């Protein structure tokens, strides 16, 4: 739609169109009669002067001063800019309340940064570390914009203004077992709410019956032992067991994920790993052969050497190997006999 800005004047001005640039900036295209040129006026420029306009600091187009040093008393597009602000003020006074009410429930957006504590916070956020504060979001009381360095596509500084809208939610995930959490930037701590997400053994997507193996009970029991032997931050996450629907898949999870994780947690202390697994025979223990040494005086022949069973051992796909992990003391004693 073409909007006449100044009807009845000797040199009427019209908005002939509006476009959104790649950077998201709105530009009004202005046609000034008796001129062969088309002019572009950014919404940012209008916004900079609009507060002064509604406060009556700008009463005529001649009150709109150039942004940079100039011999002119007002910049070249002051007249159309002034008339655009008049139209906006009329719209605000007559229609804005209705439109605002209709658009109150605007769409929200989520940005997820995985393992945020492992990244360089300065490089991740840069100048945005200030803009992500709730009060400084676009649309809030103290909304703030900045000019980002190295992002200019033109000599016009106004095109490079940037702000964070109040409908953007930033979620940063981190592993509490990772000690680098202690080094997390204090400024970042102040700008985020920290919500602990502990493992959920009773998650609906974890099977309670894989050929008789209850994976929910299995996970809950192992985590109780890990908490007792180490701490609560090193519990095994429930995501390892989501989507596991066969004994072969459960075997793969234990061989390739759970056992290596326990090795890392306990620094290859196999006795504790065996306690977590309730001595289900995934780990074998043998004494040192004294015949290996001609002199055993310096050798602890009572020390046990621990090893995982072979990858193709049938115990990996044995139902008893997994039910044994959460079996009662009495049943384990019977099995040992």
In sequence order, what are the helices and strands, one letter per element? EEEEHHHEHHEEEHHHHEEHH
**Tally of separate helices:** 11
Strand content: 5-15%
Task: Give me the side-by-side strand order of the main sheet.
Answer: 1-2-3-4
Q: Oligomeric status of the shown chains?
A: single chain
Task: Give start-end ranges of low-pLDDT stretches.
Answer: 1-12
Q: Helicity level, as a percent range? A: 25-40%
Separation of termini?
89 Å
The gross shape turns out to be elongated
Structural class: alpha+beta
Total number of β-strand segments?
Answer: 10
> What's the gyration radius in Å?
34 Å
Average per-residue pLDDT, rounded, comes to 79
Largest sheet: 4 strands, antiparallel
Textual characterization of the structure:
By secondary structure, the chain is an alpha+beta fold. About 30% of the residues lie in helices and about 15% in strands. It has helices spanning about 45-55, 80-95, 95-100, 120-125, 130, 185-190, 215-230, 245-265, 270-275, 320-325, 330-335; strands at about 5, 15-20, 25-30, 40, 110-115, 145, 160, 170, 285, 305-310. The strands form 4 sheets. Strands 1-2-3-4 form a 4-stranded antiparallel sheet. The chain is elongated, with a radius of gyration of 34 Å.
Salient structural properties:
337 residues, alpha+beta, 4-stranded antiparallel β-sheet, two-stranded parallel ribbon, 11 helices, 10 strands, elongated, disordered N terminus
